[in-house]
Amino acid sequence: MSLSPSRSAAPPEATPATGPPGGEEETRGTVYVALAANLAIAAAKVVGGVLSGSSALLSEAAHSVADSLNEVFLLASLRRSRKRPDRKHPFGYGKERYFWSLLAAVGIFVTGGCFSFYQGVEALGSTSDSPSGGYAVALAVLTVAGLVEGASLARALWQVRREAAANGRRFVRQLRLTDDPALRTVLGEDGAAVAGVVMALVGVLGHLITGDAAWEGGASLGIAALLVYVAHRLGKEARGQLIGEALGHRTQQEIHDFLTRQPEIDEVTALLTMRLGPGAALLAARVDLVGGTDSEEVEDVCVRIKRELAHRWSELDHVFLDITDARSARRSGPTQA
Q: Which residues contact 175 (CB under 8 A, 6 or more apart)?
């Protein structure tokens, strides 16, 4: 016997964001701040790179262009993920966030990492040892870029801190557990941007002091390696979420323990979960009721249990309880989380 629920924790037109109320608007604001910063910095880096001929600064320009494009992807994901569920997508469009996050990872790799690698190889093969007079501009642009990128990163970290306080977690734990792909991408981009600026500054200063262009080539290759790593991490996370990632083991265990404590449930033979988007998940559980439970009581029992599950774990937008016989379930070899 299988009973399917109606959504009780959130309206059907939107997949709720993780964190406190208004969390999605905070994420949108964080992305807008990052986009404005990257657009301004990209223009300055391109001009400075052309004037100075600095390969490290041109690598950073490609980095900022990639980040700007990715912010556009993330804004698209925030809008599209709010679409109402329909016949083709009965569980909503929350996974749009993960798809666009994957595209952002590809953009970081192709636009930023590959171009920076090319600039690094070209600089290492350069025969020119004397930096041009435009390097004062390069240093000024990188200094300002570092400050602006740092401010954008601080804005993203401030949002994580607020979510940590709302969820009763430590900052580092919230930073690791947040399931908002847009926020994760901005954090990864801005963190890489600050580190990239530091590398570029070291490369430019090394070139100025020693007259050896290899300093900038090394900086460009370092920036390329950094971007490839960030793209790999973001892509790996998006891939896992698109395939169908379960809730954390601790949360699954808490749900399992809650179900087994119910007086009407004799045994939980299977418990499956899947993230549908940030702050939204599906739960399917196969349970064996205690002997003697009246068939007329089954529906009332399931409705009560599902209501309590949605109250305790607000991310459980869809809960399915399958009433089964434990002995036959064990013979069929169910999977229990």
A: 157, 160, 164, 187
